[in-house]
Amino acid sequence: MEETRDSIADIWGQRTGYEGQWPVRVDEHIEETPDQWVQSACVLCSNGCGIDIGVKDGRIVGVRGRAADRVNHGRLGPKGLHGWVANHSQDRLTKPLIRRNGKLEEATWDEAMSLIVQKSKELVEQHTSSSIGFYTSGQLFLEEYYALGVLGKAGLGTPHMDGNTRLCTATAAAALKASFGSDGQPGSYTDLDTTEAILHVGHNTASQQTVLWMRILDRLAGPNPPKLVVIDPRRTYTAEKATVHLAPRVGTNIPVMNGLLHLIIQAGHINQEYINTHTVGFEELKKIVEQWTPDRVERLSGVPADKLREAAHILGTCNTLVSSALQGVYQSMQATAAAVQINNLHLLRGLIGRDGCGIYQMNGQPTAQNTRECGADGDLPAFRNWGNQKHVQELADLWNVDIDKIPHWSPPTHAMQIWRYCETGSIKMLWISGTNPLVSMPDLDRIRKILKKKDLFVIVQDAFPTETTHYADVVLPAAIWGEKTGCFTNVDRTVHLSHKAIDPPGEARSDFDIFVDYSRRMDFRDKEGKPLLSSTWQVPEDAFNAWRECTRGRPCDYTGLSYAKLTGGSGIQWPCNDQYPDGAKHLYTDGVFCTDVDYCEDYGYDLETGAARTEDDYKLIDPKGKAFLKGVDYQPPHEEPDKDYPLWLTTGRLVYHFHTRTKTGRAKALQDAAPDAYVQLSAQDAARYGIAEGDMVEVQSRRGKVREPARIGNIEPGLVFLPFHYGYWDKDDRPRAANELTLTEWDPVSKQPHFKYAAVRIKKA
Ligand SMILES: Nc1nc2c(c(=O)[nH]1)N[C@H]1C(S)=C(S)[C@@H](COP(=O)(O)OP(=O)(O)OC[C@H]3O[C@@H](n4cnc5c(=O)[nH]c(N)nc54)[C@H](O)[C@@H]3O)O[C@H]1N2
Ligand SMILES: Nc1nc2c(c(=O)[nH]1)N[C@H]1C(S)=C(S)[C@@H](COP(=O)(O)OP(=O)(O)OC[C@H]3O[C@@H](n4cnc5c(=O)[nH]c(N)nc54)[C@H](O)[C@@H]3O)O[C@H]1N2
Ligand code: SF4
Ligand SMILES: [Mo]
Question: Is the CB of 13 under 6 A from ligand 3?
């Protein structure tokens, strides 16, 4: 075995202080010397690092970073270096399974697909296509989502399709739409090389985007380090490096952000000319944030007034700024409203659309951007507006189907509602692909009950046996990264092509092949009677080429990209078209946003109530390309500590594991680095409850309980933290999934569930 560093002990590797360019450093981990290197990108977070897969005798034997890639210049983090080991895990699913007499038994593909098709046809006939729902992922490839999007909308015609992206980055999309009229991140990673200041809100970058953090660490180690403001209730790896760390109580992002905006406006640190020329809504925003004096913010959030002033001074005086928000915002109270305040900060100061200025309404999953782009979540493909008849007609023309085939009479059903329909019985077949809801959904007891229902037919398409496959009626074995070809897009709009390096194990098939096969067997046809997908979509590249046409003239314009162009060098940013043949670094360089009534992705929502605006409402306020400034007042969380459940719970991630650990738990180096869950609590709370480091602690909420060993320190008193990666543990019969405790509540605008707060009590077990 060879490694360029021990990335478990040395997560970020050696520093090279930034001096005018970010040097190449090729990180590598191989078990044997490969015969061949195959171009790909990493699928273990949204950073999208360029990676080469090393192959020998039909097996993956290692990986190395791609020196030429604009994202990572060769660097890789611990998950990127070790995660691939899971591809060769002994317990991969290699044959379809069908539940017979209560037990999952091996079956042929023909048997499994025939059963699914028979069930689908029966349901459509008896209950319409609205009795079928799809719950997909942020981890398949672009071509697969587009295939699913087309078959669901133009073939089956069901409004019930969404991704686990609802749990992940629905708020990123909602916040971008609310301010700029469309999804699409305005900035570029290269902004980090020159920016004067960085703001991370509820985003533990150091742990969750380790390679992006290397880029920041190299700036911090260079001659003109940026100032770093971190807003997180825990002292995370990211917070440790902060110039100013604000540690608010969970659920108080709005008071803190409003307080910052208030101080910045009051000090005159705004760009009035930019505001006048390029935005609408300034006076209303000002009126709302005015009430948030530092003392009032301190009373609600616990952030000392002086610290808030310090942070406001940095954010108000820097000439360039890169900001990011992630789950501490998106999964907490007033998610979209709080995320929008970060957009407001950049708009008020004119810090957008140029070098050194970027906003990341961050993604988490590697391909979440594509779920959203391709309409496999609750959106229409290429950021089209379901309320705009012209946009829907464009899709009908592209797919050659009648416009009424495409569900657009109401908003597409969001995932939380899809699960609700399964619970109440109107959805009778749920097709789950690339996600493990029995660890990742809130309130697991409820989800278990839903999946166990006799009248819900559950299909699970995954590569491994999981908590969720356990409850399936049909399990379809999927090929994963390295075993199939396709594209995906990272959070700074960089599109990568991942080539197939090896064959999948056994009879496992790619999601693309499975979806196209379903479409063929269902005999979905267009207006002229031609098969919908199967006549023209033989290989993923066919789907990619169809997708290119779908994006023409839309913000995510892929028309200049091709498999050939994406092969050999670096990933390339969209938009890539005649105007930007090599991709565009920044969106909105001219201060013109996607808000025109004919172009925007939606007509907007009331940030407080979630009430949707109609086309007619929007016409009255059409900002014709100006950005929206929107203010919101504070609302308290839906559950707060009381005498029975006196502590706050929050949940999140560890550097060594990805989500429900189906891959990282099967990579020995990563699993050994973080073998078990734990509960993190402050020294004060530990003393109060008589708990010592390593003691078993029972954590209970109104919905369930778990038992975890204690880890003490680096957290505010009154708050406990659980990593959410770990499912039920048979070994010592221990419930330990954080989601046994979380609640079924969601943001009114983005519909993203609230994983970041709940009231709990603890005791020594
Ligand atoms: N190692 C690793 N990396 C990953 C992943 C992984 O599973 N493991 N998953 C990927 C995915 S899909 C995602 S979505 C991202 C998530 O990346 P992050 O959002 O960075 O991860 P989390 O740990 O979920 O939450 C971030 C922080 O929010 C803080 N927080 C909790 N409540 C609040 C609040 O009310 N306000 C504020 N300001 N902060 C709060 C928590 O203390 C936590 O440190 O990571 C991606 N990268
Ligand atoms: N309490 C709490 N809960 C959370 C969060 C939190 O912070 N706190 N975060 C939420 C967030 S942001 C996210 S993103 C979710 C993640 O939650 P999940 O999506 O449930 O987590 P994963 O473990 O990534 O599940 C992906 C599944 O897809 C499979 N898979 C991988 N590649 C492929 C493929 O190519 N094809 C197919 N068919 N399958 C594949 C994997 O084996 C795995 O079983 O969890 C959410 N839940
Ligand atoms: S930062 Fe993300 S994309 Fe890059 S190597 Fe790590 S897990 Fe993979
Ligand atoms: Mo996520």
Answer: no
